[in-house]
């Protein structure tokens, strides 16, 4: 009897310890543990094992994508001075899927919707809004690359009007804390959801600072999403500056707007703006355009990770024939190297889709529409038509 009581006690103690260990693990992985972010050690990096089959398959499945740009990465959804922005509409999701795109990159300015102080809580209404859009996109069968965009202070850039600053001491930790919450919130979504840690790290984010910070952020993402595919860019617009974390479920990413004198002619955010009237594409322009794609492929071959051409596009001041020629060329160059791509962007100044009709954004002379938006057919055809 005494013996069986002892055995029972040991079993109860064991059960209690297991429950405690389980709860402790859950707390470690939950956003409730955010106060400990400073203590999370960065994932080791610099000796990456090469990509998993899952990463290769997912990268290929991203296929032909489009950025829902100038929407959720405005200072608020649909609000961004002076560049302008448009709120995400269900219509955009429907037309994107119906046109035959297979993925959407969703840039989000998380930093403007989160507390300035630890634990940097993300506003719940905003979280719900982003989640509802992600869910609708996934329900359409689209892959989604959920991207953090325009945390300007992190890059050391001037803040936009309507953007707030936080204490410089918490900048990096806040970035990690945002990812801890995002990763936890989306942990049960399908594998068609990917995370992209940060768009175009630059400026204050030197390569060494970015490599260390990305490894910290990936470490917290992995607490709740052990195998979700994560997309990573190199600092200074240069994938070769990236020290890959030692993780197999990664995709490298790069952008290509070459030649900028063509793609960014008239862009108001370039100072002074480049002259309008540049056509495309002669041999030297084609050589410039293809160079980043070739470099992306070389990086992929060297490190044995797939790459995503996450942004390419031309601003509306270019003439439509040239834009179509450049867009088709870019798509063909990426696809001939088996690189999936995301056009920048759906429905604003670079847009393949006019959200308003009447050419009020973008292409003067577009026929007016009172039926909501419509595709700029030549651009859509350059992206999705048979070559
Ligand atoms: C930026 C956009 C910009 C685009 C082209 C993107 O990465 O976030 O604001 O319009 O690049 O310059």
Automatic annotation (TrEMBL):
Keywords: Glycosidase, Hydrolase, Signal
UniProt GO molecular function: beta-glucosidase activity
Keyword Cell inner membrane: no
Pfam families linked: Cellulase
Domain called Glycoside hydrolase family: residue spans: 88-346
Domain of life: Bacteria
Family membership: Belongs to the glycosyl hydrolase 5 (cellulase A) family.
Name of protein: Glycoside hydrolase family 5 protein
Species name: Candidatus Segetimicrobium genomatis
């Amino acid at each position: 009897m005494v013996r069986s009581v002892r055995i029972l006690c040991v079993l109860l103690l064991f059960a209690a310890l297991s429950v405690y260990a389980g709860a402790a693990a859950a707390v470690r992985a939950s956003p409730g543990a955010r106060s400990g972010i400073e203590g999370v050690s960065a994932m080791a990096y610099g000796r990456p094992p090469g990509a998993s089959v899952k990463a290769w398959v997912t990268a290929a499945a991203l296929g032909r994508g489009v950025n829902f740009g100038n929407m959720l990465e405005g200072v608020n959804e649909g609000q961004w001075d002076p560049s302008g922005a448009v709120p995400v509409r269900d219509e955009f999701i429907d037309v994107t899927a119906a046109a035959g795109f297979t993925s959407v990159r969703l840039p989000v300015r998380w930093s403007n919707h989160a507390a300035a102080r630890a634990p940097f809580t993300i506003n719940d209404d905003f979280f719900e809004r982003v989640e509802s859009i992600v869910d609708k996109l996934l329900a359409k069968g689209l892959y989604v690359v959920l991207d953090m965009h325009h945390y300007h202070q992190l890059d050391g850039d001037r803040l936009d009007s309507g953007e707030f600053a936080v204490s410089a001491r918490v900048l990096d930790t806040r970035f990690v804390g945002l990812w801890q919450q995002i990763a936890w919130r989306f942990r049960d979504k399908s594998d068609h959801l990917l995370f992209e840690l940060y768009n175009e790290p630059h400026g204050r984010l030197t390569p060494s600072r970015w490599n260390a910070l990305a490894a910290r952020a990936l470490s917290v993402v992995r607490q709740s999403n052990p195998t979700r595919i994560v997309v990573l860019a190199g600092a200074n617009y240069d994938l070769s500056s990236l020290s890959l974390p030692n993780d197999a479920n990664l995709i490298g990413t790069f952008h290509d707007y070459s030649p900028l004198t063509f793609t960014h002619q008239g862009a108001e955010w370039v100072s002074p703006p480049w002259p309008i009237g540049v056509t495309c594409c002669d041999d030297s322009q084609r050589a410039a355009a293809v160079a980043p794609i070739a470099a992306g492929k070389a990086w992929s071959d060297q490190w044995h990770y797939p790459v995503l051409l996450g942004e390419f596009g031309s601003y509306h001041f270019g003439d439509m024939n040239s834009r179509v020629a450049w867009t088709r060329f870019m798509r063909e160059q990426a696809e001939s190297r088996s690189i999936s791509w995301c056009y920048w962007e759906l429905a604003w100044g670079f847009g393949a889709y006019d959200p308003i009709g009447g050419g009020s954004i973008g292409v003067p002379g577009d026929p007016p529409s009172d039926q909501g938006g419509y595709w700029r057919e030549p651009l859509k055809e350059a992206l999705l038509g048979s070559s």
